[in-house]
């Protein structure tokens, strides 16, 4: 077996290529139900391949750069899906960005964070992480989520839960600036705050007993990661009409489409976070969860703000009352979770319970 396959198993090479072929064959065509099922299966394979290649690259560059790479890659998928659906979705897509970003925040800060703490606590009785790094990440998520998703409901320059063009531009710049400031702190000034630690609090600066991938393997993985992500965006766009039709046929609110998009694009993060927690790298799992939430807002809102130059219609960003309650509850519970730097199964269960409430109310508001 060639040396490259020690890190790149064959299916992770073939699946992205297969996904590109499927994308070419289905692009711009109305897909019958059997083809939608096949495309969905290929899409799921592309997501899994993207996870693998992101982990290879992450292992080569080390933490916290690895978590950052996957978070940004996943956000690229999210932005591309939102913009493409807003272009073709008409009036029903005016709140798609808000619904998707809020769903991403709830899934990451409750779902991925909760299951990571639960797995870590079940493995070691107590999940241990660095409160300085995790707390600063959670604080940044809370700040930019409030700025981008809560303030539009209370501003008065425009009717409804939307910013004026000047307010949208200001919110986009501030969100991006806070995100970039956090990245600088995470990767440069206080990198040790975001490194995995042992139960006794010692920093783990490298994976043990695992050979680093070669430069060639890393570059091939990076290329296949980009191919897989491009395929995920295109295939998801292709089956989105079927998703929207299914949501409408089931009598569910249109906001469920945003939840489905967020669940899809965050699947790589979820799998990677669980794997890290199983390896007793809870800090890496939390980096993935909160980094994705932060990138989802800090990068998506600026991208949507730029896209609004060419898109028609208003951009509804402000949350409703029920969503604000869930966001406030998530911030309060999350703060009490991360401050001690240690969590047990109760903390994980609380966050997963909040995710269940969000999903139920999204389907039955």
Name a few traits of the molecule.
single chain; 365 residues; mainly alpha; two-stranded antiparallel sheet; 2 strands; disordered N terminus
How would you portray this structure in words?
It is a single chain. The chain is mainly alpha-helical. Helices cover 74% and strands 1% of the residues. It has a two-stranded antiparallel sheet. Helix 2 packs across helix 9. The radius of gyration is 20 Å and the shape is globular. The model is unreliable at 1-6 (pLDDT under 50).
What is the secondary structure topology, with strand pairs?
Layout: H1 10-26, H2 33-61, H3 65-89, H4 96-124, E1 127-128, H5 131-154, H6 165-189, H7 215-249, H8 255-265, H9 267-278, H10 282-298, H11 300-307, H12 321-338, E2 342-343, H13 345-363
Antiparallel strand pairs: 1-2
Helix pairs in contact: 1-2, 1-7, 2-3, 2-7, 2-9, 3-7, 3-10, 3-11, 4-5, 4-8, 4-9, 4-10, 4-12, 4-13, 5-6, 5-10, 5-12, 6-10, 6-11, 7-8, 9-10, 12-13
Computed CA radius of gyration, to the nearest angstrom: 20 Å
Query: Helix count, per DSSP?
Result: 13
Main beta sheet: 2 strands, antiparallel
| Secondary structure tally: strands | 2
What fraction, in percent, of the residue positions are helical?
A: over 70%
Read across the widest sheet, the strand sequence of neighbours is: 1-2
Principal-axes shape call = globular
- Low-confidence runs: 1-6
How far is the N terminus from the C terminus? 54 Å
Please indicate the percent range of residues in DSSP E strands (runs of 2 or more): under 5%
Mean pLDDT, all residues: 82
Q: What sequence of helices (H) and strands (E) makes up the elements?
A: HHHHEHHHHHHHHEH
Structural class: mainly alpha
């Amino acid at each position: 077996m060639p040396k490259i396959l020690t890190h790149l198993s064959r299916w992770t090479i073939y699946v992205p290529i297969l996904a590109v072929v499927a994308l070419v064959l289905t692009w711009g065509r109305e897909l019958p139900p059997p083809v939608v099922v096949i495309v969905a299966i290929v899409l799921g394979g592309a997501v899994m391949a993207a996870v693998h290649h992101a982990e290879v690259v992450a292992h080569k560059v080390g933490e916290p750069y690895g978590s950052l790479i996957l978070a940004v890659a996943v956000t690229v998928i999210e932005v591309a899906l939102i913009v493409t659906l807003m272009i073709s979705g008409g009036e029903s897509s005016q709140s798609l960005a808000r619904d998707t970003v809020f769903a991403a925040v709830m899934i990451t800060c409750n779902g991925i964070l909760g299951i990571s703490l639960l797995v870590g606590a079940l493995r070691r009785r107590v999940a241990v992480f660095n409160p300085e790094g995790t707390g600063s990440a959670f604080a940044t998520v809370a700040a930019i989520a409030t700025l981008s998703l809560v303030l539009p409901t209370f501003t008065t320059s425009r009717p409804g839960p939307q910013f004026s063009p000047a307010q949208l531009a200001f919110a986009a710049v501030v969100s991006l600036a806070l995100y970039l400031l956090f990245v600088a702190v995470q990767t440069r000034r206080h990198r040790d705050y975001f490194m995995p630690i042992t139960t006794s609090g010692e920093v783990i600066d490298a994976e043990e007993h695992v050979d680093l991938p070669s430069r060639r393997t890393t570059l091939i993985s990076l290329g296949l990661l980009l191919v897989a992500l491009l395929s995920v965006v295109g295939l998801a766009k292709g089956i989105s009409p079927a998703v929207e039709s299914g949501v409408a046929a089931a009598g569910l609110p249109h906001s469920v489409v945003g939840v489905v998009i967020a669940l899809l694009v965050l699947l790589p993060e979820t799998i990677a976070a669980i794997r890290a927690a199983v390896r007793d790298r809870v800090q890496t799992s939390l980096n993935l969860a909160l980094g994705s939430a932060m990138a989802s807002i800090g990068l998506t809102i600026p991208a949507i703000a730029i896209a609004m130059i060419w898109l028609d219609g208003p951009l509804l960003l402000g949350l409703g009352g029920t969503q604000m309650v869930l966001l406030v509850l998530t911030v309060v519970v999350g703060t009490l979770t991360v401050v001690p730097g240690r969590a047990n199964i109760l903390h994980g269960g609380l966050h997963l319970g909040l995710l269940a409430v969000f999903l139920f109310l999204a389907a039955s508001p």
